[in-house]
Protein 1
Amino acid sequence: MTRYLKEGRRKPGSEWIKDQTRFLERAYRLTLTLFERLYPVGKQVAPALTEKVMIWGEKAVKGYIFNCQMCGQCILHSTGMTCPMTCPKNLRNGPCGGVRANGHCEVIPERMCIWVQAWERSQSLQEYADEMRLIQPPVNRVLEGTSSWINMAEGRDKVPFS
Ligand code: SF4
């Protein structure tokens, strides 16, 4: 079943990396600081190139570690560093009613429910653990394939529909 669902794919070692939540949280903070300093310069000097580099970087890095589906509205730090778009139902506010007794997914039985993983991982976050309780707006499909970092900087990720 998993080979038919891109959401179900996992790269070698990526589940181990996702379990290193403290490290990922620190990496997120560092990336955020760097981005906040560099993006305004990139936007002024070479906006198209900056966007290309950001999209490439997100596809490569987040694609490998988190199986990022490039939704353009990243909420990884609010979901225990576990991408909600890797839920086969793309649920962004917790699990469906079909989680199996062993914590596995009803659509991909050989995988853990990503929301079980998200909850467990979120508990070891220092700064963002409480964000698991936030209600996320519906995903805006118009932003698919774009840079979530740039969308965050431009406030586009706060608009559910456009
Ligand atoms: S940008 Fe969207 S699809 Fe990619 S890791 Fe973040 S939440 Fe998941």
Protein 2
Amino acid sequence: MSRKVEKLKYCPAGHFSEDFAYPDYFDKRNSILSDGICSLCTKEHLIQEFKNWSSENTEIDKIIQESQIKYKYDKLHWIPYSNFQNINHIADCDYGSVYSAKLENGIKDDWNFIKQDWKYHSIGRKVALKEIKDSRFDIVRVVKNYDCIDYGISKNPSTKS
Ligand SMILES: [Zn+2]
């Protein structure tokens, strides 16, 4: 049995459905749904978490943060390396290596104002992990051109790449 999801005018935090959520996104208006989703709640919680993670590269941090604030294309995420499980080497390429891996905990999708917790997507999903080992390779340029990145960016704590 599926519960009917309705559009709401206000969320419990007081956001309004006519507010602008993502000025650069094609759907600029805030979307508030009765199953607990509000674009502005999600955005505020993502911003609150900026202090909890860092790629150790301020330029990359800035790109990820901007993608979450503006919803440019899709949101990028900083993914802790420990979220990747069952890492298997697939191939080497000129800049590094490609692995398959399982996204153990998924990716934060939306803040749920009913559960007061994150809703995750892609939990347990198999993904391709590209490790860039060539230090001449400009990671900032790759990240800026992020239509080639589906989920986010991580750092291998042992190789620092
Ligand atoms: Zn809200």
